[in-house]
Amino acid sequence: MNGVLIIDKPAGLTSHDVVNRVRRVLGQKSVGHLGTLDPLATGVLPLVIGNLTRLAQFYLATDKSYEGVIRFGFATDTYDADGDPLGPVTSVEVSLEQVRALAEKFRGVIEQMPPPFSAKKIHGVPAYKLARRKKGVVLQPVRVEIKLFEILSCDGDRATFRADVASGTYLRTVAHDLGRELGCGAHLTALRRTRVAEFEVSEAITLERLAEVAAGNLEEVFVHPRRLLPHMPSVTASEEAAALIRGGRAVNLPEMSRARRVKVFYGQRELIAIATRVAGTLFHPGIVLAPAQKTATANTR
Q1: CATH of the domain at 270
Q2: pLDDT in tens, 60-77
Q3: Does residue 84 share a domain with residue 73?
Q4: Residues contacting residue 275 through CB under 8 Å, at least 6 positions apart
């Protein structure tokens, strides 16, 4: 079983929890995700299944979109609503103009300190493991890019926002830093991811929906393979060329563009390789996604 599935992750589950559930539902061990979501967060969690787990390397630095809510009045140790307050709760009421003015500081390429409760590693140990043991967590600031950070509304001590960010950006830190700028503390109280690369929340399905269709036609919930990696041209291989590609052999492919890499299909839906141009129309299948097909042998006994 090979495919890409977009799950609408519910709150309260880790990304790994979702992967484990999908493994059980599909009876498939080879399942991975394309970008962790915190337990508090909901929304787009793309999963790669079977041989298509090898596509994960192309999604390591993809842009993401979010919608969320920031609560002002106190900060937490995790920078979100799952954490413990770092001080007394202050009654505050923020204005739209005030928060929008501060939000301008968080657009573009900025230096950002990752949260203590994060997957960033310190001497090979994830920071969140050290933070849980109440050990000192000393992280270094990282350069991130926030392409859009728009404050949509303010109501009392809460502000809603939407954001488009490059990979590695922590919106929990943005919320925490906004509260520090205001002098009242703040934390992220809700977050929904609406997009990862080409995968939109409108296409996502719930775990319950997946369980309903698992015994039937999964193609209706899998992302059509032709939509994957849209920046990479698609080429359809002949039967003879497909057989060579499955065996890892270089082949001449139809000249669709001068792209360095192409997605190679056999038929409309079977993605069999990611091939790299050697010269002219000669391509080498550096990533083979469909193994060589076995040929039947006669029983001579």
Answers
A1: 2.30.130.10
A2: 989 999 999 999 999 998
A3: yes
A4: 235, 245, 251, 253, 261, 262, 264, 283, 284, 285, 286
